[in-house]
Amino acid sequence: MSLAPSASATGLLLQCSRPFSKGVTLDTSPPSEAARFGLAWHAVAAWAILLRKLPRLQVLRPTALRHAQAYGAEHIEEELVAHLASTLPILFKWLDALEEREEIESIITEKSFAWDPQTGHVREIPLPTIEDHHYQTRDGEMPGTADLILLTRKPRRRLHVIDHKTGVGDFSRPAQVPQLKTLALFVSRFYRVPLADTFVGVFHAPRFAAPRMFVEPALVESHDTSLAKALARIDDGFMRPGRECETCKARPACPAGDSEMLLKAETLLKQTHHASTALLAAPTSKNLTRDRQLGMLYELITQGETLAERAREAIKREIAEGSVPELSDGRMLVLKKRQVERLSKKEFINAYGKIAAERMFAKWRKDKALTKKPETYLDKSNS
Fold first, then answer.
1. Final residue belonging to a domain, choices 246, 275, 308
2. Inter-CA distances, 334 with 46, 315, 320, Å
3. Same domain membership, residue 224 and residue 185
4. What is the pTM of this model?
5. Cα end-to-end span (Å), the chain
6. Which of 58, 151, 262, 363 matches a 20 to 30 Å C-alpha distance to 336?
7. 100 and 59: one domain?
8. Same-domain status, 119 and 67
9. How many CA atoms, within 13 angstroms, populate the side-chain half-sphere of residue 28?
């Protein structure tokens, strides 16, 4: 099952066609706790915005609890309620200011569209399914969902396409976010508002930081052409590693990623040779101080650790696909499985939410099941 191209995957689509090609194996892990939190937050925010006024806590709470259960985030429902109560006032403050300045004609939330790159036509479609985010599209269409659409009438008819984000990231330049470029293209064509009168924005409400609203004119010139070219590249073997690889569901066993790793390995080996030569010559060299020698050794070790971690994963994938690596002593590398249990503070927070997890940690500290020990570690400093 390949990844379906959509507005949210625009950045990946423009970078690499492999995840959207037929027969590519995808990571089918269930949504993370952070993703489920974000989905529930989006649903409650959409409901609240359509009320046209900030709901009181006693009204907000039952709706938030219901959506938390719907998206499998019931274990963090109290955190969700608290987060909505602290972030929605900022969003409504911006909406009120926009109403005074431009006079809002229409407010639309959670609306899905499908764009045909051949004809340029955009039509409304049902929202994607909750279970697997599947869109009902026709062959060749590219779908997308806008969180919030605002049509204003002063000084002339304008369009504002707003996306809500609860995760970590820099959204200070929304016009440069590929997903918003695509949504602006879809929505402006559907409502027949010139791109010159279209604005894009991000209401960034991260879980552990202050919320902020970013809005600027849409910059989507030639974006439809770029999208059409990227869609046409699907299944032609085009692959390119880049910034989108980090969240790509087709990242396991990616040839482009392995190729990049091998290039880095070759570079590192060359650096290792030069660094080793310099380190060995250090005792007799007047140009290399002992302090610089230690610094070079640290940099060498750090790069080697990174390479070793990635190389082991690549070797595992190769063995899983049939390779039988030979060692210098004649033995072969094989894959074996074992059950390992680990406790992680980060995973506890992801599973139970920050508030519930901290309560558990506090109890463990009291019972002396969780203790602190001093340690000395290496860190970088400019001084």
1. 246
2. 51, 10, 9
3. yes
4. 0.69
5. 52
6. 262
7. yes
8. yes
9. 6
377 located within any domain: no
Structural domains of the chain, count: 3
- Sole residue written with tokens 């990635």: 310
Q: Which two tokens stand for residue 249?
A: 């569901």
For residue 361, the enclosing domain spans 343-370
Q: Does 282 reside within a domain?
A: yes
Backbone angles phi, psi at 344, to 5 degrees: -135, 130
Find the helix or strand (DSSP H, E) in which 214 lies.
strand 212-217
What CATH number did the domain enclosing 200 receive?
3.90.320
CA–CA gap between residue 342 and residue 344 (Å, rounded) = 6
One domain for residues 188 and 240: yes
The answer to whether 191 and 151 are in contact (CB under 8 A) is yes
Residues 298 and 354 in one domain: no
pLDDT per residue, tens digit, the chain (383 aa), is 678 999 999 999 999 999 999 888 888 788 888 999 999 999 999 999 999 999 999 999 999 999 999 998 888 999 999 999 999 999 999 999 999 999 999 999 999 999 999 999 999 999 998 777 889 999 999 999 999 999 999 999 999 999 999 998 899 999 999 999 999 999 999 999 999 999 999 999 998 889 999 999 998 889 999 999 999 999 888 888 888 887 888 876 676 655 455 555 555 555 555 555 555 555 445 566 777 777 877 877 777 777 777 778 778 877 887 788 888 777 888 888 888 887 777 787 878 888 888 888 888 888 888 887 887 777 777 65
Q: 3-state class of 148 per DSSP?
A: strand
Which residue type does 223 have? H
In what helix (H) or strand (E) does residue 105 lie, and over which residues does it extend? strand 104-115
